[in-house]
Amino acid sequence: MRIDIISVAPNLLESPFNHSIIKRAQDKGLAEIVIHDLRKFGLGNYKQIDDTQFGGGAGMVLMIEPISNCIKQLLVERNYDEVIYMTPDAKTLNQSTANTLSLKENILILTGHYKGVDQRIRDKYITKEISIGDYVLTGGELAAAVLVDAVVRLIPGVIGDEQSALTDSFQDNLLSPPVYTRPAEFEGMKVPDVLLSGNFPKIDDWRSNQAYKRTQQIRPDLLKDE
Ligand code: 6GU
Q: Residue 140 CA: which ligand 1 atom is closest?
């Protein structure tokens, strides 16, 4: 999968993609992530990329021309299955969206800043708008990093243990059950007997029950979704 990201703060995106599993995915050739600095497409000597909004009001708006020029240049090289705009005024990212995106070949992500982008960019180029939750970040970069992480880890071969991505919290709209490792007892705190029993059908049952109980307690809204 190829992921292009247009950003006004490319430095913010360096670290998240250059470590651990996402780095390994790129090293293995399973994902190619390329960041484009919008400033390079800025207008005039000052490389202007934003301006005050028509109609008045506080905050700067990302201008149409630099973004349009950047997108047009990228479209010369390839077509995109989705052109995604990261913005708080959109539907919230969930596992189902991540699953769907992980099957795509080419994705372009535009990260917003300030008051957002000129609406005409959204109208003309954007095929999907994504928020990562009901709170406001200073820019879309960290949100894009969250999206890319959630998507890339689902590409077959990225996570060693194939089972692992499939049994995540949310893959079945349930939170994960509690997990334990050695020692079996620490300062009087014991691991539930069932997990040490070797009775795997019973262990599966216990995990399902715990997952359901946890979901009911912490995220009852997930049980109502379907
Ligand atoms: Cl995608 N961008 C910004 N700036 N804030 C957010 C967000 C995105 N998602 C949640 N908050």
A: 2
